[in-house]
Amino acid sequence: MTEHRPSMSKNDQLFARAQQTTPGGVNSPVRAFRSVGGTPRFITRAEGPYFWDADGKRYIDYIGSWGPAIVGHAHPQVIKAVQDAAANGLSFGAPTEGEIEIAEEICRLVPSIEQVRLVSSGTEATMSALRLARGATGRDKIVKFEGCYHGHADSLLVKAGSGLLTFGNPTSAGVPEDFVKHTLVLDYNNIPQLEDAFASMGDTIACVIVEPVAGNMNLIRATPEFLTRMRELCTEHGAVLIFDEVMCGFRVGLGGAQEMYGITPDLTALGKVIGGGLPVAAFGGRAELMQKMAPIGPVYQAGTLSGNPVAVAAGMTTLKLIQEPGFYERLGRAAERLVKGLTEAAKEADIPFCGDAVGGMFGFYFSHNIPSTYGQMMAGDKERFNRFFHGMLDEGVYFAPAMFEAGFVSAQHTDAVIDETIEAARRVFKRIG
Ligand code: PMP
User: Which residues are identified as catalytic?
Assistant: First the structure.
């Protein structure tokens, strides 16, 4: 008897195989398409604004490795720097001049950072910044905001409960309640709530950590008033203000969100762009605070691969490329052109839709108004987003596979690439309308 099976694509085959040895078949959850359904695409190569999957299909890529690929994939200068560095050895566990150079560059570009420590992931950067804030203040409590993601350190994995001044429960299994009992979760952009928190417990708050442009609940901008008040309250009460610019740093502009808003945090976490696609992240800030880090201070932190020479070479070359004249103007224009085009195309199909862009980051929402809170963002039409996502994927356009993520353009997303995307969206909106 002949068995008739529907033929499986290479992506399907790889996904089935991956699930045998890797939980869910992926090494980071959002890659698994759980939110949108279907088979994740297994990527074989990338160049400029594109990548190709295992079935040979080309996509215009709007995640750019979730931020790092700001100069476009496989930029020849970045690749050459990596190859040159690799030829000299991959890792030494001893300092190199390249680490000094990238530290100097980061301090020059982000003036609030007087000293910086390199790590290998955004998670390490925020986790270490928290430890430093606690070590420096001798206080335990931390404030974070609903919908902001700061990596997966235990004390930051807190259910985003919106109740006023309620302490959160862990969002993840395996995080003891004791570990998060000092984490206070407040509403993003809610000034009175923040004021209340400081009024009732200001002298026990070690730090406030915030994404000044939030990119982990789709794209939501902090209001300038919210960040200004946050800065004032932290100063008044001796709490450390940590800007998590892992995503928005070197993305919304050369000086990050802090330059855009004109607000100076005490500490900043960076990642993504500063590694140019290899694992580099960092935390830094006022020298007087950073001097509390080991080996000269009492706050411990370390890493076998921290400041890895190959990764630093990729990061340093990327930091040079983003300083070319007009880089951020081009990037911003591309994101705006995309959002405007998508919005017009949705309007033609009579679909409630709006979008926003900040520098090279963008968000789009299946709702009438741009959200300013987690709750408003969650109220978007998820079903329609999912149909749009899959429609665009069929058309060869890869947006983030979840409604809760921001999107990214690179310097290689030319007008022609954006217009091709908008034409595809026009067809998809008609189909899903
Ligand atoms: N902070 C922010 C704002 C992020 O967007 C992310 C990752 N998306 C992280 C921290 C964690 O970075 P990583 O995934 O490199 O650990």
Answer: 149, 244, 272
Please give the pLDDT value at position 5.
56
Query: How is the beta sheet containing 267-270 ordered, strand by strand?
Result: 115-119, 281-285, 267-270, 240-244, 205-210, 141-145, 183-186
8 Å CB contact between 299 and 132: yes
Q: What is the mean pLDDT of residues 355-380?
A: 95
**Residue carrying the six token digits 């400081």:** 198
Ligand 1 atom with the shortest distance to the CA of 244: 3
Ligand 1 pocket residue status of 135, Cβ below 6 Å: no
Are residues 252 and 287 both part of a single domain? yes
Q: Within this chain, do residues 404 and 256 fall inside the same structural domain, yes or no?
A: no
Residue with tokens 């605070």: 289
- Verify that 127 and 50 share a domain, yes or no: no
Predicted pLDDT at 260: 98
Is the previous residue joined to 23 through a cis bond, with omega within 30 degrees of 0?
Answer: no
Measuring from atom 13 of ligand 1, which residue has the nearest CA? 122
Q: Which residue has the higher pLDDT, 295 or 166?
A: 295
Domain that includes residue 339, residue range: 10-70+325-432
In the reported structure, the alpha carbon of residue 247 is separated from the centroid of ligand 1 by a whole-number distance in angstroms of 7
What confidence score (pLDDT) does residue 158 get?
A: 80
User: Are 390 and 261 members of one domain?
Assistant: no
- How far is Cα 305 from Cα 116, in angstroms, rounded to an integer? 16
Domain count, the chain: 2
**Domain identity same for 261 and 396:** no
ipTM exceeds 0.90: yes
pLDDT band at 167 (very low <50, low <70, confident <90, very high): low
Tokens of residue 91, six digits: 């890792």
* pLDDT over 90 percentage in the chain: 89
Which residue's alpha carbon is at the smallest distance from atom 1 of ligand 1? 150
CATH of the domain at 107: 3.40.640.10
